[in-house]
Amino acid sequence: MVDYISLLKQNNLKATIQRTNILKSINRTGHITIDEIYEELKIDYPTLSLATIYKNILLMVQHGVIVEIPISGEKSKYEIKKDEHIHLICKSCGNIEDRELSSCNIDIEDFNIIFKQINLYGLCRNCQSK
Amino acid sequence: MVDYISLLKQNNLKATIQRTNILKSINRTGHITIDEIYEELKIDYPTLSLATIYKNILLMVQHGVIVEIPISGEKSKYEIKKDEHIHLICKSCGNIEDRELSSCNIDIEDFNIIFKQINLYGLCRNCQSK
DNA sequence: CTTCATGCAAATAATTTGCAGTAAG
DNA sequence: CTTACTGCAAATTATTTGCATGAAG
To answer: Which segments of A1-130 does DSSP mark as H helices, in order?
Structure first.
C-alpha cells in the first residue's frame, strides 16, 4: 500500500483524512472522475462535501500529486502522478488502460516540451471480441 | 477559402448561416473555445444565441465536421477535422500549433485504435526567449 | 410544402466562494 | 497555539431543454 501521508507531505500539503481518502479512490481505480470519487467516498463518509473534493483536486494538481486526464466528450479523470505513459481509452466500455511510452520518441524543433499527453481512443481487447 | 456549405452537406447537415459562421471562426483561429466563438460572432451578428452554438458544436462533432481538443486545466477547443496531427500547447501564451505526426508511429497490441490525441505542453519558441 | 434549425427563456448541472467551526503540525 | 482545511449554503458559471417562429432544401 502506498503511503499517501508521506506523498502529501513531500508535496507540502497537510495530510487530512479527506485527502488520503481521495488518493485511495484514485489509486484503487487508476483513473476516476470527481463525481465518482464523491459517490464512492460518501458511502463510508457521508459528511464529506463535494466542494472539498473540488478544492483538493485542484490543489493536488497544482502541487503535482495528481494529474488531470482530459477526455474527448467526457468529464476529466484524475490519476496519481507517475512516470510518463499513454492512455488507451475504450470507446465502448469506457475503460482506461496505461501503457509504456516506449515506441514513441517525440522530439520537436523549436518547442520545449514540459509534459506529454497521449490518449489513444479505440476498442479494448474485450470489446473487440463482442 | 474553404467551402463550408459543401462540407456541411457532405456530412448530412443543412448549411445554415450560423453553422458556416461557426466554421469560419474555427478555421480562422485554428483552435477556439465555444465562448470565444460566441464573443467573436456576436459582434457582427448580435441575435446569435449561445445555445445555438452549443447545439451545433455537438452536432458537428457527431457528424465528423469538427473535433474536440480537450486541454488540461482549460476549456476544450475545437478544430476543423483534418489529417492526424499533434498539438503543441504553450503553457505561457496558450497558443496551439499543429505539427505532423511523422516521428511517432504508434501501434499497440491488443488494442484497436480509432483515433489518436497527442498534446504536448511546453513553451513555444516566442515564450522561450522571454 | 416539410423538415429541421434558431433564439429565447427557463431548467439543470457543474464549479467556486465565503465563512464559522475544526483539525493538523 | 497557529495556520490551514472542512462542510455547508449560497453564488456563479456552464450546459441543456422546450417550444414558437423562421429558414433550408
So the answer is: 4-10, 17-29, 34-44, 50-62, 125-128
